[in-house]
Amino acid sequence: MIALPGTEWSVAVSREFVRDVLGSHHPALDGVGLSVSELATNAIRHTPSGAGGRFTIRLAAADHRIRAEVINDGVIDGEPHRRSEPGIDAEHGRGLLLVDALADRWGVTRCAGRTTVWAEFGY
Fold first, then answer.
1. pTM of the entire structure?
2. C-alpha distances in Å from residue 27, one per residue of 22, 72, 95
3. Band of residue 76 on the pLDDT scale cut at 50, 70, 90
4. Which residues pair with 117 in a beta bridge?
5. In the structure, what pLDDT confidence band is assigned to residue 90 with cuts at 50, 70 and 90?
6. How many CA atoms within 13 Å lie on the side-chain side of 16?
7. Is the pLDDT of residue 105 over 80?
8. Could you tell me which residues come within 8 angstroms of residue 71 by beta carbon, excluding any fewer than 6 positions away?
C-alpha cells in the first residue's frame, strides 16, 4: 500500500509502485499498471484528493488474481461511472472505459467519506 499526494506527479509514482510490487515480468503488469494510472488520474481530477488531498493505492494478490484499489478523499462529481464513448476529438473521458476493457471486473465502494474504485485482473 502507498499513500500519495493528489498531484499529477503521483500518477507516475503510481505506475512505478505497481511495477515494483508486481515485478517487471508479471503477466498482469500492463493491465494493472494502466488501470491504476487511470484511477489515480481520476482521483486527482474528480475528487478532493486533487485539491490538496491524498489518495492511497492498495494491491492484493490471491488465486491468480490481482485486486487494485485506489482510495480517494471522497467525490465531487458524483459516483464514478463509465461514460459512453467520448467523441473522437475528446481529450478526456476514456479512463474508466480502459479500466472496463482491461479488468475482469471493477466497482466502487464508499466508507467513512472516502471512495474506493477497485479493479480485479486474472492471470
1. 0.85
2. 9, 27, 21
3. low
4. 70, 108
5. very low
6. 7
7. yes
8. 55, 56, 57, 58, 114, 115, 116
* Residue 36: Cβ-neighbour burial (10 angstroms; 0-12, 13-18, 19+): buried
Beta bridge partners of 50: none
Provide DSSP, 11-74.
HHHHHHHHHHHH-TT-TTHHHHHHHHHHHHHHHHHHSGGGTT-EEEEEEEEETTEEEEEEEES-
Nine cell digits for residue 111: 466508507
Q: Point out the least confidently predicted range of 14-18, 63-67, 109-113.
A: 109-113
- Please say whether the dihedral angle defined by the alpha carbons of residues 46, 69, 91 and 49, taken in this order, is positive or negative: positive
The CA distance from 45 to 19, in Å, is 23
Instruction: Write the pLDDT tens digit of every residue in 55-71.
Output: 999 999 999 999 999 99
